[in-house]
Design a protein that fits this description.
The chain has helices at residues 5-25, 27-41, 77-80, 83-91, 98-103, 151-163, 167-183, and strands at residues 46-52, 58-64, 108-110, 136-138. 33% of the residues are buried. The protein contains 7 helices and 4 strands; from the N terminus they run ααββαααββαα. The chain is globular, with a radius of gyration of 17 Å. Helices cover 39% and strands 9% of the residues. The longest helix has 21 residues, at 5-25. By secondary structure, the chain is mostly helical.
């Protein structure tokens, strides 16, 4: 599908302007969170992990640490996530360092959430459509419940977003994501520190769900 003017020439300048402005405005908050992480969790304020970007190209994602160091190899994430980390994740302030990823051109302010590189060979052909665009901080799936949205529905929303990137769609995604954050919904999937691991497509049972039709055209 051919990209519209906004996707071709408008989105990236807005990313640069928005990420730069937010980093400037939020710099006191970032400093305070960094100090809180240092005091609560010890040395190593930032968490770095390889994630899949546009076209599946790996990049290093930045976040504030929210879990303590493991006490033994393979300790579950849920056991390492303490009260401080849960509150940090609920506020989504742990994600703010990804504004640096936006400035570096690895992410966008709006797009599918960046997932582990190990998931690349687990997608269906339809789900791989999400890789056509830069991953983002806010997104269509995020606006519908963050980590509480089941994998099939989440990946379908990602594919639909990638098929038609518009200014109106991005505004709707940002406002919806802010609403979810303020409501406190979807911090984690039930029974998990964040979300269950994505199974390979061949092991997944088909799931039916209704996706409301939202006109995201300008």
């Amino acid at each position: 599908m051919a990209e519209g003017f906004y996707a071709r020439a408008g989105k990236r300048p807005l990313d640069l302007l928005g990420a730069g402005g937010l980093l400037l405005v939020l710099s006191p908050v970032l400093a305070a969170v960094a100090l809180a992480v240092r005091l609560a969790l010890g040395p190593g304020v930032l968490f770095r992990q390889e994630r899949a970007g546009r076209g599946g190209v790996p990049f290093t994602l930045f976040k504030f640490r929210s879990m303590r160091e493991p006490r033994y190899p393979g300790e579950p994430d849920g056991a390492r996530l303490m009260g401080f980390g849960r509150r940090l994740r609920a506020s989504a302030l742990d994600e703010v360092p990804q504004l640096l990823n936006v400035l570096r051109g690895e992410m966008s302010l709006v797009g599918p959430r960046p997932l582990p590189v190990a998931y690349l060979d687990r997608y269906t052909a339809r789900e791989r459509e999400r890789l056509r665009v830069r991953p983002g901080l806010a997104g269509a799936a995020q606006a519908r419940g963050r980590n509480a949205v089941p994998w099939p529905e989440r990946l379908e929303w990602d594919a639909r977003y990638a098929a038609q990137v518009t200014l109106r769609g991005d505004v709707v995604a940002v406002l919806g994501t802010i609403g979810v954050l303020l409501s406190g919904r979807g911090v984690s999937a039930e029974g998990h520190a964040t979300m269950p691991e994505l199974p390979p497509a061949r092991l997944r049972q088909p799931e039916c769900f209704e996706v409301s039709q939202v006109d995201t055209r300008l």
